[in-house]
Amino acid sequence: MVSVPGPHATYLNPILERHGHAAASLLQILREAQEHFGYVHPDALDYLSAQLRLPRARIEGVAGFYSFICLQPHGEYRVLFSDNITDRMLGSQTLMEQMCQQLWVEPGKASEDGLVSIGATSCTGMCDQGPAMLVNGRAVTHLSHQRVQEIAHLIRNRTPLDDWPGDFFRVEDNIRRKGLLLDSTLAPGDVLRAALAPGAADIVAAITASGLRGRGGAGFPTGLKWEACRLAQGAEHYVVCNADEGEPGTFKDRVLLTSHADLVFEGMTLCALAIGARKGFLYLRGEYRYLLEPLQAVLQRRRENNLLGACILGQPGFDFDIAIHLGAGAYICGEESALIESLEGKRGVPRSRPPFPVTHGYLQQPTAVDNVEIFCQAALAIHMGADNYRAIGTPKSSGSKLISVSGDCPRPGIYEYPFGVSVREVLKDCGAANTRAVQISGPSGVCVAESEFGRKLCFEDLPTAGAFMVFDDSRDLFEVARNFVHFFAHESCGFCTPCRVGTSMLKQTMDKIAAGHGTRYDLAEIEHLDQVLQTSSHCGLGRTACNPVLHTLRHFRPAYENRLKSLDFEPAFDLDGALARARQMTGRDDAGAHLKPEET
Amino acid sequence: MSRKLRIATTSLAGCFGCHMSLLDIDERLLALLELVEFDRSPITDIKHCGPCDIGLIEGGICNAENVHVLREFRTHCKILIAIGSCAITGGLPAQRNHLDLASCLTEVYLTEPGLAHGHIPNDPELPLPLDKVHPLHEVVKIDYFIPGCPPSGDAIWKFLTDLIAGKTPELGHGLIKYD
Question: Which end of chain A is more exposed for a tag (fewer CB within 10 A), N or C?
Fold first, then answer.
């Protein structure tokens, strides 16, 4: 293949050097290339193809998969409004229209002068301080009419982002209730020092005895995972921290990585010691790009303090370091095997399992993939002792859980509770009034209505990854479900047909009902589609994509029924309206130029 | 012996390829005729559909007349089947969906030389085109779908014989295809 000379080589060469021309770093290379040039130019693809010895189609396939990688120019300022239901409830759609009007652009298109493009993106994890947006990858919070006006002004004047008011980019922790994790005053290295002497087998035994379970929602026993990984044969073992916090309504990892990064890295290093890993990755979602430099500074400080690198704490053979890998806007990469694919520089398509990552993970080597929170909890469990840790929470859910509260309540933010807290208690603490429903654990989780507010957040009852979105009695649960259905259709990775087609059909049917064309037949179709998605999807995304609809149908069926026509069937669009263009072009208005509704 | 079932067939915005596939059941047509009789269909040239058991429709909905025919079938057929890609998704004709209808008509009748003496035909005899081509199920309720472009004669045979026997039709491996 001929290498393409020209302007792209000059900025691509240092990037390629930095990543050792490794194909596994393709996503990082593409992301950095885009940060430099604004988008990934077709010539840049050719150049990368030659340099990395990868087919161009493979590179383009990866670039096309991630929504933050652009193959076309999208304006000097790329504005993406967070489109979670909590942003919408705070008026994001009006604000987006306002900005489009002020900058003379259509949503989703770049302006003709190449200045700006405005679009929407999935939840950016700022639900407690929305409406939020990303501008050239940087998070802006607390949008209001005034702020949008100011931003439009700054963009029109081509003010560099660094000169924007710092207030715009301020992300607050909003910690409202502390527990054993958020109250922790452990100094860097405390846990590692205590864990060095007992050694790997004892760490895993203590984690097992503490009853620690995954905090991403599935609740897999951490001790079992670490033990399997420790015993698995492989040339290298890897620790991966899943900070691809993509579930709409979740933002606890953002707070942990902002204010407790040391504890996260301490936990990862502890895990490395337990499973015998020398290399770890933090997979940071692209939306949290602004955390990259602060996190790298923490890593650097830890290296200087001998808490990372060779012979950690003077222990010969205890070598471990952590690299940060940035995602690029793909919810599916929160699934652990898709995340590993993404780490390897591929499209984030979930793998077939088994084999599981503990035996065949990153580069087919034994890999422990865990949630940000679990690394903190593991460090705490080791520090406190298994029995003390196990005493907190419920019998099958030991320890505490960080809950990300957003939506209709005066005090959104992070609440830490021992497992077993009831929905009602959380609602009381965040000041929610007239609550109609709570979406637990995000769109893929469970929608609970008032009759179930006594249910408890724990693995025995309501497992949760942490999202807790509150909807009061002014909210229409049909629109909530429709927003979630759109989310899944957008985030389907496209690998398996049931999910790729099914989520789109579900979206179309929900839109048909929203437009007032729905009938009972369509409700039956939704239930049928849900069955197909649940039984034949390749991964959890497809299996859970119908949850929002199933749950809201169960609790809030009238919200759907009120929109239905009383007929058995209605066309999906306005038939007579669809002839308007042809009537206009032909100048006809006779009876044959119209389509009347059918008589029933 | 129980009465013969009545079947109607038609092609809307399609190419008659699915009807050709129906003919591909070859000598089994004679066996089929033992079990059914044809109502409106290119086979009989009957112009309007009467009460039927089964309606088979190929092609999507591209104009007002398609809507009228489809409604006639829905009114008269107990079971309505969308057959082939165009009926199920809009298929090839739906490729015009990303173009504005007015620019299509302008391009064909006003810009390109040689057609319609430079004006867009507006005879009331002609059905008006819809702004987009739609699959059948967006206009009336459809009971069954036979995918394929076209589905094979064997698939159509299996589907019809299952229906006639009162079984929920199942196209197993090799009979379901999408191209």
Answer: C
